[in-house]
Design brief:
Structural class: mainly alpha
Number of strands: 12
Distance between the termini: 16 Å
Organism: Rhinopithecus bieti (Black snub-nosed monkey)
Number of helices: 25
Low-confidence stretches: 1-21, 108-115, 312-320, 718-728
Mean pLDDT: 76
Subcellular location: Cell membrane
Family: Belongs to the CTL (choline transporter-like) family.
Largest sheet: 2 strands, antiparallel
Shape: elongated
GO molecular function: antiporter activity; choline transmembrane transporter activity
Function: Choline transporter. Choline/H+ antiporter.
Strand order of the largest sheet: 1-2
Length: 728
């Protein structure tokens, strides 16, 4: 045992006995122990079986949803009969737009987009282009029958031009009036325009509604409130899509360059980690300082312009981001943020300088371990692929579940005074039922897709199951990666002569062991995390549903619960990582491994605290490196996509928003760097656990030598051996 423990035992044997009893017995010397054991058996078999059954059920659910669902229901509008507009092989094949008989009955855009507006809806090939009422059409029909041909395309196929207005309203075959419209989201919406600062439609401010009344454009605008914002959103979405279609290969090139730079950076860390780190620190401080100076210059320059007195509240939300850079408020905010970051970085370098030295040595050791096991740098790509598969399957299954069912029709009363409203109905016989007689003017319109079968009744439950298994699979993929990396780095640590004693393909060996023997244990650990995350989602759902009825006390309790679940989730993740390391080394079940890891950390609690501070220092250093790395990649991408690097390569000629590929490259570079440094984090944690085991098993003598490398020996063991030599 280490010298510190012997000293404590001599000083107070009872205290040491209690400490050892509470934290378990320390490891003893075993001459046959050479790292991760090969003789293993399957662990947590019951949990493995449950996990596999859940996956089989998940696959079956996806197949059943695929059979019953139809994503076209989410993409195409549906008329009052439940038929798709524009569907091939149907009478509506050439009618791709949905038309509302009386848009004034729709009270909000959400009602329109959910296809539950209390008016008849039919599929048309084009939207109306002029004002015309049914009565006016009848008068013109006596002179020229072509007017009916123009009007009938907005009527049902059974409509006739000789009905009275009363009969028309009763049969609901045609709209009482049409007005200029334009298609948006495959639906006919009013074609608003502004003339001399006044809102108009078809150069008119008032129009006839066909029922003998006069309506204003303001009423029509209120019925379609928010449509202009939706139009802007659609325009923005189309422009963003066009930018991606133009620059996708440049984005791939940029991300490839970022990956190559990450590899080069990791290679340099092995040899010049200290020099590289301090160069980055100086670079970060200089870049932030230049940013502060530039923001101050822009802030002072804008004081001379009258437009600079505007604030973000004056201009509102704009799709043209350049407008925000014309505000003093923007540059002042940037300057304050950069000043805060600059102060934090400088204080961190001053007060954590000793820990930074230790962190640099750990970074070198981690780089050496990764250099001896280079396959660990490829593993983040495999994790990304597995996570992408899980996410895509979850999204597709959710879409098919949401579009499962048969058309369901419900009674809709335009005036809202029918006792049978929202009841299920049959549109083919609706006019002959008692409901039509009791509620004159009521309609039997398509409401949504559903059904009364057992499958349709449990669709909400299937959505919950889909989400839960998705969370379980995501956490399982992460756990599998952590266990495989821990096995590879443990193999590196327990090799006496590095790299000669390191077996071939340690990562693939560890990955195979994790899949073959410990699927149940990894599923057990990931299940705990998935349950906590599911509770958090339920908590957020309840908060969203009860937001209007909450008081101050309930909001306070909600915040406390969020904080508790966040702390619990992070604590469990920390314990799980250490449990996975013990699983990778000894091959025991999850509970035993978690207990052994916890006891090991408790027996080395002081070293654990020191390692925690060092790990947090590495964490801060990591994000400073992220900042410098992503900033430089972002600057190069900015210069390229704004046509300011013609010497190197000619960028895309025309872009709607250059920030679309720019932010994509920056975010992608950050994720790539995070993936590589997650390997570092697992490497450091594994080495620390193995180091604590090494101190308990060995004493540094010739018979029981330490497996730790000389660099780590100098900073973690040397100080403990000096008192022992003095005692001798």
């Amino acid at each position: 045992m280490p010298y510190g423990v012997y000293k404590k035992q001599q000083k107070d044997p009872s205290e040491e006995a209690v400490f050892v009893l509470n934290a378990g017995d320390p490891r003893t010397y075993d001459p046959d122990f050479k790292g991760p054991v090969s003789n293993r058996s399957c662990t947590d078999v019951l949990c493995c079986m449950i996990f596999l059954l859940c996956i089989v059920g998940y696959i079956v659910l996806g197949l059943v949803a695929w059979v019953h669902g139809d994503p076209r229901r989410a993409a195409y509008p549906t008329d009052s009969q439940g038929h798709f507009c524009g569907q091939k092989g149907t009478p509506n094949e050439n009618k791709t737009i949905l038309f509302y008989f009386n848009l004034l009955r729709c009270t909000s855009p959400s009602v329109l987009l959910n296809l539950q507006c209390p008016t008849t809806q039919i599929c048309v090939s084009k939207c109306p282009e002029k004002f015309l009422t049914y009565v006016e059409m009848q008068l013109l029909y006596t002179k020229d029958k072509s007017h009916w041909e123009d009007y009938r395309q907005f009527c049902k196929t059974t409509a006739k031009p000789v009905k009275s207005l009363t009969q028309l309203l009763l049969d609901d075959d045609c709209p009482t009036a049409i007005f200029p419209s334009k298609p948006f989201l495959q639906r006919c919406f009013p074609d608003f325009s502004t003339k001399n600062g006044t809102l108009t439609i078809g150069s008119k401010m008032v129009f006839q509604d066909g029922n003998g009344g006069t309506r204003s454009v303001i009423e029509l605008r209120d019925a379609a409130n928010g449509i202009n914002k939706l139009l802007d959103a659609k325009s923005l979405g189309l422009k963003v899509f066009e930018d991606y279609a133009t620059t996708w290969y440049w984005i791939l090139i940029g991300l490839t360059i970022a990956m190559v730079l990450s590899w080069i950076f990791l290679i340099l860390l092995r040899f010049i980690a200290g020099c590289l780190f301090w160069v980055f620190m100086i670079g970060v401080i200089g870049i932030i300082g230049y940013g502060i100076w530039h923001c101050y210059q822009q802030y002072t320059n804008l004081q001379a312009h009258p437009s600079s007195v505007l604030t973000i509240y004056d201009i509102g939300i704009q799709t043209n981001i350049s407008m925000y850079f014309e505000l003093q408020q923007t540059w002042f905010t940037f300057m304050i943020i950069l000043c805060i970051i600059e102060v934090i970085v400088i204080l961190m370098l001053i007060f954590l300088r000793n820990r930074i030295r230790v962190a640099i040595i750990l970074l070198k050791e981690g780089s050496k371990a990764i250099g001896y096991v280079p396959s660990t740098l490829v593993y983040p790509a495999l994790t990304f692929i597995l996570l992408s598969i899980c996410i895509c399957y979850w999204v597709v299954t959710a879409v098919f579940l949401a579009t499962s069912g048969v058309p369901v029709y419900k009674v809709i009363a335009p005036e809202g005074h029918c006792i049978h409203e929202n009841q299920t109905c049959d549109p083919e016989i609706f006019n002959t039922t008692e409901i039509a007689k009791a509620c004159p003017g009521a309609l039997c319109n398509f409401a949504f897709y559903g059904g009364k079968s057992l499958y349709h009744q449990y669709i909400p439950t299937f959505h919950v199951y889909n989400l839960f298994v998705f969370l379980w699979l995501i956490n399982f993929v992460v756990a599998l990666g952590q266990c495989a990396l821990a096995g590879a780095f443990a193999t590196y640590y327990w090799a006496m002569k590095k790299p000669d004693d390191i077996p071939r393909y340690p990562l693939f060996t560890a990955f195979g062991r994790a899949i073959r023997y410990h699927t149940g244990s990894l599923a057990f650990g990931s299940l705990i995390i998935a349950l906590i995350q599911m509770f958090k989602i339920v908590l957020e759902y309840l908060d969203h549903r009860l937001k209007r009825t909450q008081n101050t006390l309930s909001k306070f309790l909600q915040c406390c619960l969020r904080c508790c679940f966040w702390c619990l989730e992070n604590a469990i993740k920390f314990l799980n990582r250490n449990a996975y390391i013990m699983i990778a080394i000894y091959g025991r079940n999850f509970c035993r491994s978690a207990k052994d890891a916890f006891n090991l950390l408790m027996r080395n609690v002081l070293k654990c605290l020191k390692n925690c501070f060092t790990t947090k220092t590495i964490f801060l250093c990591k994000y400073i490196i992220y900042m410098f790395y992503v900033f430089n990649v972002g600057v190069l991408a900015f210069l390229f996509f704004t046509q300011r690097l013609p010497v190197i390569a000619q960028g895309p000629a025309s872009l709607n928003y250059y920030w679309v590929p720019l932010l994509t490259v920056i975010l992608g570079s950050y994720l790539i760097a995070h993936g590589f440094f997650s390997v570092y984090a697992m490497c450091v944690e594994t080495i620390f656990i193995c180091f604590c085991e090494d101190l308990e098993r060995n004493d540094g003598s010739t018979e029981k030598p330490y497996f730790i490398t000389p660099n780590l020996h100098g900073i973690l063991i040397k100080k403990q051996l000096v008192p022992q030599k003095q005692k001798e």
